[in-house]
Design brief:
heterodimer, A: alpha/beta, Rossmann fold, 5 helices, B: alpha/beta, TIM Barrel, five-stranded parallel sheet
Chain lengths: 141, 553
């Protein structure tokens, strides 16, 4: 079972073209041994959820710098739930005011990362969370 | 009394090297922000250029020392704060606020729907209307944006690319409705599509038709809007996406040279359009590296235009540029420190001879800036202009061994990139293959690694941090009603306009797409017919297709 690799979808919802952060995080997660799929730019919530379903990912990470996070993040969450992907670990980052982060973290997002976050800490966070989930799954099985 | 005899330069150098040997150093490696290794000190042998050929005097070829003979003694740079949010009416108020506080030019920030050529009522735009800029979908919005602002007196910069020719058409048509001759309009439209594919990613159609529209703008404006800067060839976004200073310089100039080639291929005289090309660079925290970049940019452009393209008008040789301080250098942690970072960056831009400047506000890593933060940013420029006295002397760092050596190095590095791009078939093929995108990504990643390993320090992030900080600055919020208001405006525009006239104007664009007609002319007609940005863009997508980005990851 040690062969099982964490599958992550890094996604850019909406019209925002800023992808420096998304690509950096995608590369770092790959360096940490994860399978990373990057959606490319300008994706709708439905498109993102569809890719998440097809790629059978464990984690969806959204990156946004357009200010539209309060609209788009919950919609991505809903599209995932609609496809039965409630168990996917949802994280995100970008230019998001602290108050909004708190709201989103109460609303299905496990964690949001702001500017200046150490990228290794993102990888470590995902590894820890997914290990917990996998351990729970195994215990149930 | 003992007499001290001066030692010769080589003797001095020997003695200095001996003294240096074995000395204790804080680190094993000392590099520029872009990662180049730096010497302890620079001397005459490092700045090896010929002063007459490589420097000249301010206002003289190759303009290394600036584009004007007296530089800021004649006229200060234009203080131009990029602004836009919410509805046209709100941004109009912010513009008037900035003009009242001594700003001397306007700069429009558009929201993502506008940048992507979509109307606010497009399904793709939910939640994005008016967020990071102002929503402008029609001539009616443009009229509201400039309500009470004299378009014949103020110079306006519009940061728009994919649909730039359409927004320029709205602006021209708006002036015409006021009875102004477009020939009096002064300003800039960014209209630099190449760097969109490379870095910023707000495109509309694939490169070739996009370049055709840009050439249409150059051609139309040369005749009808002669004071308008038709392209602001931008390194800013390339740098912000993660490039080094040398990559910013090289890719930007390579793009600029590509536009010049396109104009010449169209059959235009280079001197009829080159003087209206302007540039836009980033000013980052490595003070001397940035100044060297600005100086090298002027020298390379002058040489290329005169020697490669045979331009005869000195205005074609002159690289004039706008600067924005580096958004990426700002931190969300201890945000007040951003005022200090911005001040150093602004000073580098001024000492590098910029023609206009935007200084970022301290709160921009968190949201759009508040009025207070914007005012401090503007005051930062005013303090440089009025209090530091640096503005009296042109190119004050010219002749510094260090700055001259860095300027030469920047030029060499840019030339090496030009050769590499040429080897790859030119700018457009290098975009198609993802070359620029990969180079920028690699630089971004290695910078991130340098910060995270502690090799590069960022105050408040990886040193002098204060743990979990509660943020105590006020944030600017976009009113939630903005989207509904924009939608209402669009609905009433569509209901009130002369529908057959609008349809005919869109058909005219469709026909123009498939002929050699000038598209900007067709866009102006459509603007007068109250066609919307989204409708015009849809015709362009139908005729020219969508752009699919190459995968680099």
């Amino acid at each position: 079972m040690s062969e099982r690799r964490i599958r992550v979808l890094v996604a850019k919802p909406g019209l925002d073209g800023h992808d420096r952060g998304a690509k950096t995080v995608a590369s770092v997660l790959r360096d940490h041994g994860m399978e990373v799929i990057y959606t490319g730019l300008h994706k709708t919530p439905a498109m993102i959820a569809e890719i998440a379903l097809q790629e059978d990912v464990d984690v969806v990470g959204l990156s946004i710098l357009s200010g539209a996070h309060m609209e788009l993040f919950p919609r991505v969450r809903q599209e995932l739930v609609d496809r039965g992907l409630d168990n996917v670990l949802m994280v995100g980052g970008g230019i998001i005011p602290g108050d909004d982060m708190q709201v989103l973290e109460k609303d299905g997002f496990a964690k949001l990362f702001g500017p200046g976050t150490n990228t290794d800490s993102i990888a470590e966070y995902i590894q820890t969370e997914i290990s917990k989930r996998w351990a729970a799954e195994e215990a149930q099985a | 009394m003992t007499e001290t005899k001066p030692i010769s330069v080589p003797q001095g150098r020997q003695a200095w090297e001996a003294a240096l040997e074995g000395g204790k150093l804080r680190d094993s490696e000392f590099t520029s922000l872009s990662g180049s290794t730096l010497e302890v000190v620079y001397g005459p042998e490092d700045a090896c250029g010929d002063p007459a050929e490589d420097l000249g005097w301010p206002g003289q070829f190759p303009f290394t020392r600036g584009v004007h003979p007296s530089m800021y003694r004649g006229r200060l740079w234009t203080m131009r704060q990029f602004a836009g949010f919410g509805t046209a009416r709100e941004t109009n108020e912010r513009f008037k606020f900035l003009l009242d506080h001594g700003q001397t030019g306007l700069s429009v920030a558009f929201d993502f729907p506008t940048l992507m050529g979509r109307d606010g009522d497009d399904e793709m735009c939910r939640g994005e209307v008016g967020q990071v800029g102002v929503a402008i979908s029609s001539i009616a919005d443009m009229e509201q944006l400039f309500e009470g602002i004299p378009m014949d007196e103020v110079s306006t910069s519009m940061t728009i690319n994919g649909p730039a020719p359409v927004l320029l058409a709205f602006y021209i048509a708006c002036a015409e409705r006021r009875g102004l001759d477009p020939a009096v309009l002064r300003g800039t439209v960014q209209n630099d599509i190449l760097k969109e594919y490379q870095a910023q990613h707000a495109w509309l159609v694939p490169p070739e038709p996009a370049l055709r529209m840009i050439t249409d703008v150059m051609e139309y404006c040369a005749e009808h809007v002669p004071k308008w800067n038709t392209i602001s060839i931008s390194g800013y976004h390339i740098r912000e996406a993660g490039s080094t200073a040398a990559q910013e310089l090289a890719f930007t100039l390579a793009n600029g040279l590509e536009y010049v080639r396109r104009g010449i291929e169209r059959g235009m005289d280079v001197d009829s359009f080159a003087p209206r090309l302007s540039f836009f660079f980033d000013s980052h925290l490595d003070f001397f590296e940035e100044i060297a970049k600005f100086r090298a940019a002027r020298r390379i452009w002058a040489r290329k235009l005169r020697e490669e393209f045979g331009a005869k008008d000195p205005r074609s040789w002159m690289l004039r540029f706008h600067t924005q301080t580096a958004g990426v250098s700002l931190t969300a942690q201890q945000p007040e420190n951003n005022i200090v970072r911005t001040a150093y960056e602004a000073l580098a831009a001024v000492l590098g001879g910029t023609q206009s400047l935007h200084t970022n506000s301290m709160d921009e890593t968190l949201s759009l800036p508040t009025e207070k933060a914007v005012k401090i940013a503007l005051r930062t420029q005013q303090i440089i202009a009025e209090e530091t006295e640096v503005v009296h002397v042109a190119d004050p760092l010219g002749g510094s061994y260090y700055v001259e050596a860095l300027t030469d190095k920047m030029e060499r590095e840019a030339e090496a990139y030009f050769d590499e791009i040429e080897r790859r078939g030119g700018v457009v093929p290098s975009i198609d293959s993802g070359y620029f995108q990969k180079e920028i990504h690699d630089s971004a990643l290695s910078y991130q690694r340098a910060v995270e390993s502690g090799r590069k320090k960022v105050v408040g992030v990886n040193c002098y941090s204060e743990g979990e900080e509660s943020l105590e600055i006020e944030l600017h919020r976009i009113r939630p009603e903005v989207e509904a208001e924009a939608l209402k405006g669009l609905a009433s525009l569509r209901a009130d306009r002369n529908a057959p006239r609008a349809t005919a104007a869109l058909d005219e664009i469709r026909t123009a797409c498939n002929s050699t007609a000038n598209l900007l002319e067709a866009f102006i007609t459509a603007a007068h017919a109250d066609c919307t940005l989204g409708e015009i863009s849809q015709v362009l997508r139908d005729e020219f297709g969508d752009y699919i980005e190459p995968k680099i990851l």
